[in-house]
Structure formats: C-alpha cells, structure tokens
Amino acid sequence: MSGHAFLAADLSSEERHSLSHALSDANSGRPIPGRRPPAENWHITLRFLGECGDPQTDLVMHRLSDTVSASPSRVWCEGLGAFPRPSRAGVVFAAVDDPTDILGHLAGVCEEAAIDAGFEPEDRPYVPHLTLSRLRPALDVRSLFAALGEFRVPIKVRAITLLRTNGPRYDTLDTLPLV
Prior knowledge:
By secondary structure, the protein is an alpha+beta fold. It has a single domain (4-177), classed as Cyclic Phosphodiesterase, Chain: A (Alpha-Beta Complex), CATH 3.90.1140. The protein contains four helices and eight strands; from the N terminus they run E-H-E-H-E-E-H-E-H-E-E-E. The strands form two sheets. The protein has a four-stranded antiparallel β-sheet with strand order 2-1-7-8, with helices on one face. The longest helix is centred in the middle third of the chain and has 15 residues, at 102-116. The chain is globular. The two termini are 30 Å apart.
C-alpha cells in the first residue's frame, strides 16, 4: 500500500467543527495563508512513520497494544505557532496545551514501538501541534499572529490512530482506544 503512514490522536467531527469555527472567529473569517488540509484530515501527530508496508505498521500496532497504558485525557488547541519560526514559517499550526502530558507520553510510547518495528529514531523533539497550513515558499506570519484573536478548543485524546495518506485523503488503518 502506498502513502505515508503515521500515528495520531484523531479529532471527532464535532471537535473539527468547533476548531474550524474558533479559528474563523479568531481570524475574522480570513483564511490562514498557504496550502491548508481539509478539516476532516486534522489530527495531532504522535509519530510519523513514512513510506512503509502493512507488516511494519502491523508490528507497530501490535507493540502498542502490548505497552500502551493511558486513560483518555483532554488537551486544548489554543493559539498559533509556526515551524521553524513565525518570521519564516513553512508550517502554521494550532498550538496544543497538554497539561497532563498525555500527548508527550503517547508520543514516547509510539517512538519506542516504531524503533522496535525497525524505524529510525526521530531526530527532533516532540512538539504537540495540529497542522493548519503549509507555506511554500516560507512566509513571515507574525502579523497574522498579532491580529489573531483568542481561541481555546477542547480535544479529547481517546485513542492512537494509525493513518495513511491516500492522495489528499487520510485513511484510518487501525485504532487503539485508550482505556
């Protein structure tokens, strides 16, 4: 199967709707610049896996089912951020407030499972975020950030979801509920 695979905390349709309205209200209805994924693809990535086959993703999910011990928890999308920085943004994202560090914990477990399945270790520290736009070429978005109103949208982390890109669509391959 082709496409990039990744592990994520998926959003419910109600959470996507709430975040979409909050972003529109905070930005006075103006769209965020760049190539924006459709709201139905919004998620919080826990571990990017890349191009890989079903045997590797099956091994990752099997390892996760043996090791994940976490209860559902709430995080909040609030404010915007940019990679690598607002003055030269290649990615604009909704920042995530994770007071219980559930996402950090799950990202660590996903990292261990990915390494056990033969993936190379991630070379960047984990930063929980929800990608809203990709900018090519990079842009200075500091004025966007300065003009943005406040928003705070609750997201319930319920499961680890294995997703694969399929053109512009993301397909859910497997879900491991948190209990």
